[in-house]
């Protein structure tokens, strides 16, 4: 049991009080029910007592109610206590814990619990019982005070719970109101698009707004078939759709015609061809996913629109990972253990990058800059093998080996910076609605980066073959 130092009395005094308590007769004025007492709480009055057993029963009843009511408040209230009510809670909690640790014979146990009540109150609310001379009188006063304290604590707790409920209801109403407003804005945008096919940025519902500097030429379609049809008409996504749509066809031509017909194809092993094929697959997937996203970005169903955006982001992640894998494969061409470790790590990063976009927050308009940062960081993981290569082969070897890749990296970074800064349309809003905007430039940079990397792979394999035959 926790030890509390009584103020103004000693343990011997308390013990003597119990010895004389049974023979004492005292008349008490019937206590008035507290005005704030709850209907469910019990009245632990200290009316005329005939012996100490009645008092001990009242103590037990109070402690039982204290346990039940505090448990309820702690389980369902979850309240934040201010300084005043915190003192009351600490006192009630000290009584509950102190009495809960008391054990032994029934009569002795009840007396020790009563003594705990007195000790706690003399530590925290000394003024309540300081005028009482005997322990039974202190217990009488203490139980009465604790019941009032518990009732007051419940009142404050229930008020806090009511405030929380009101806040929750206001939050629910705000969500419902926001959904209603979104539904109304979607309906207005659909009607506007039906009338004149293309709408303005201000007419778009908020989830579809991405770039405020592209002011006109927006589609807003009700069905996927309408999205496909709109890809063959002029709008502000036409350039985005066809730069990567035609780029997809070009990559397929390289993968299935130009690469097999090239002279280097005959020198490549099966593993070499697999790595080349992996790069072509990732590049084609990225371009195809981008084309699909920009084709269906105008769909009027928000969840469907966001899922198509996730398709685009997952394609970018796999392209970055595959590009890094080609450098790791050729750099460690004669070191299979290191090669396998680095390729596995990069592959796992790529898979993570393909999964992350499906998280709800990733596609939000305010996350645009962070999306760019994420992909730049993913690409930066390709520099980790350089540390080992610098130690084993020297910095000059690393610089010469990675030099062919710098062109594609520079193009990717330039496009990402332009996309993140939204230039040039930021300086001339409305002038680049159809072509020449930052997203159009980003698409050209992505396609250019793929082609530059494919060209760099010739040099990477050439250096790998030299290392293998050295």
UniProtKB/TrEMBL annotation:
Keywords: Membrane, Metal-binding, Transmembrane, Transmembrane helix, Zinc. Zn(2+) binds at residues 294, 439, 443. InterPro entries: AdipoR/HlyIII-related (IPR004254). One of its GO terms (molecular function) is signaling receptor activity. It is a multi-pass membrane protein. The chain crosses the membrane at residues 241-262, 274-293, 313-334, 341-358, 370-387, 399-421, 441-457. It holds the Pfam family HlyIII. GO terms for cellular component: membrane. It comes from the Eukaryota. GO terms for biological process: intracellular zinc ion homeostasis. It is found in: Membrane. This is HlyIII-domain-containing protein. It comes from Choiromyces venosus 120613-1.
